[in-house]
Design a protein that fits this description.
Blueprint lengths: L3 E2 H23 L2 H25 L5 E2 L1 H17 L12 H13 L5 E2 L4 E2 L5 H17 L2 H30 L5 H13 L4 H7 L23 H25 L5 H11 L1 H21 L3 H9 L2 H18 L18 H23 L3 H12 L10 H6 L1 H21 L3 H14 L1 H17 L39 H6 L10
Antiparallel strand pairs: 1-2, 3-4
Helix pairs in contact: 1-2, 1-5, 1-6, 2-13, 3-6, 3-7, 4-5, 5-6, 6-9, 7-17, 9-10, 9-11, 9-17, 10-11, 10-13, 11-15, 14-15, 14-17, 14-18, 15-17, 17-18
Length: 503
């Protein structure tokens, strides 16, 4: 069977994740630390790619005609998400455009003299396109057109990531026909909890049309996959890629690298990825006959050691300097409204999980996903509860994979008609959320008569007060370092691109 093998997809995914980390090390760290971590990451990547070629045992391949279809879907999906500065952009792009522009215009590591702080943010997804923007700036010599060109690079990078995601999704559900492939893609794009029903029950905070349906339960939110792409593509694309790699490959030797890579791109989803890594490795260790050999061969592999003891600590030291950071541990559960939490869980995942459980209750990834989704709402690590919204991305992707598997298998084998019908009803109701995301862009482009309705009011974060559009409050804490003059990262690891601390 001709086509693209899994080892090619795996290697492409690992390279995709590793390149921005190499850019970060070269641009942010001092020469000694940069050399060491670039070398270690290179060794890690080489080892992973070499082992991937040896361990592939699946006969599944992605036909090239399927790849063309996935490219078309990825191109359209990313365009409608607003990536690339071509089309209507959601509210969060005010910050994303500012971060991206500053990465292009300022020396690395980015330091804001007016705010007296370095940039501290999970900006990994922009680094490679921003590097291209830096290279092209002297030749274009026009800030607007150079930023536009850099956005084209960002769009290409995003499309490439989504193509890999959809290809690995096809591998996860073993899509060997056009029907299975089309079903997998459609369900993935429109997979969501039944937020529209939640809105009918709880009208706590009236949300303007420019925002999304997922907010119905206030600070407890599980975003649809399309919502994630439209609002936090910089976190969603690498997280989905890592989760699908982990699901398909099941290679414990690489988990340390994958968790570190997720933390670099998206700190909160890294918690969700970590849950699956611990569950998978823990079960394999428990079932292993020679536990000493298992530890030496699987747990203490080169990618795990480099990921856990070099990459992960570096990224942790960088992110904990953020002003918002982990200052408080909020406890979400409100004992006066336990019914709301129960209804939230039922509408977002429990009803779907209940229909899938008779078939997949013994599958480790399914059980882990449902358990994680039950636990995540009880933890709140920041005021807006981004942890709940983003740590839930990995288990929701896994739940989506099992939903696709169940539906495609039940249709092909002509069984489980009742459960299949009920599941389809739940998915159709849930599709209202991603459909709203698609319709919002169409609504505003038709109303204003143009496509590129970009959200770019902040422009730069080099301000003592970064005013959040519409709401007006200061958003500085999300992008700044509170004690950079004494933080380990900025004192001992970073390049000295900052004011003299002796003053």
């Amino acid at each position: 069977m001709k086509g693209i093998g899994l080892k090619t997809l795996y290697r492409a995914a690992y390279v995709y994740l590793a390149l921005p980390m190499l850019v970060f090390f070269a641009g942010w760290l001092n020469y000694g630390a940069a050399f060491a971590l670039i070398l270690l990451t290179g060794v890690c990547l080489y080892k992973i790619c070499a082992e991937t070629g040896k361990t592939e045992n699946s006969g599944w391949r992605l036909p090239k005609r399927f790849l063309f279809f996935l490219t078309v879907v990825a191109t359209i999906w990313c365009f409608l998400a607003g990536i690339g500065y071509f089309y209507y952009q959601s509210f969060d792009y005010h910050f994303r455009n500012a971060v991206f522009r500053d990465l292009i215009n300022y020396s690395w590591p980015v330091f804001y003299d007016k705010a007296d702080t370095p940039l501290v943010y999970y900006m990994g997804f922009w680094l490679l396109p921003a590097l291209f923007g830096k290279i092209s700036a002297p030749f274009i010599q026009n800030a607007y057109w150079n930023f536009y060109l850099a956005n084209i690079w960002l769009y290409i990078y995003a499309v490439a990531g989504v193509i890999l995601i959809l290809a690995l999704l096809a591998a996860a559900v073993r899509a060997d026909s056009w029907k299975k492939l089309a079903a997998a893609v459609v369900i993935f794009v429109f997979f969501s909890g039944m937020d529209v029903i939640g809105i009918l029950f709880f009208k706590v905070v009236e949300q303007p049309f420019a925002y999304h349906l997922d907010w119905w339960a206030t600070f407890i939110q599980y975003s649809s996959l399309t919502t994630c792409l439209f609002w936090v593509f910089n976190q969603f694309i690498p997280t989905a890629l890592v989760m699908l790699l982990m699901f398909n490959e099941r290679n414990i030797k690489n988990f340390g690298f994958l968790v570190a890579a997720t933390l670099f791109f998206a700190p909160y989803p890294a918690a969700g990825i970590g849950i699956f890594a611990v569950a998978c490795a823990g079960r394999a260790f428990w079932l292993s006959k020679d536990k000493t050999s298992f530890l030496g061969r699987e747990i203490f592999s080169i990618p795990n050691l480099i990921g856990a003891f070099w990459l992960l600590p570096t990224f942790v030291l960088y992110f904990i300097t953020n002003s918002e950071g982990m200052d408080k541990l909020w406890y979400v559960f409100d004992y006066t409204t336990p019914m709301r939490l129960l209804i939230f869980m039922l509408l977002e995942f429990l009803l779907i999980a209940g229909l899938l459980a008779p078939t997949y209750r013994k599958h480790l990834f399914f059980v882990t996903a449902v358990t994680a989704l039950c636990l995540i709402p009880f933890f709140r690590l920041d005021q807006q509860n981004n942890f709940c919204m983003r740590a839930s991305i990995p288990p929701l992707i896994v739940l989506c994979i099992y939903t696709i598997r169940f539906l495609t298998d039940s249709f092909s084998e002509h069984r489980n008609v009742i459960r299949r019908t009920l599941l389809l009803v739940l998915l159709l109701i849930g599709a209202a959320t991603p459909l709203t995301e698609f319709y919002r862009g169409l609504h505003f482009t038709r109303q204003l008569g143009r496509l590129n309705i970009v959200a770019d009011q902040i422009y730069t974060l080099n301000q003592p007060f970064v005013q959040m559009p519409v709401f007006g409050w200061d958003a500085n804490h999300q992008f700044t370092a509170k004690e950079y003059r004494s933080d380990i990262f900025w004192q001992y690891l970073s390049r000295k691109h900052r004011p003299d601390t002796s003053q």
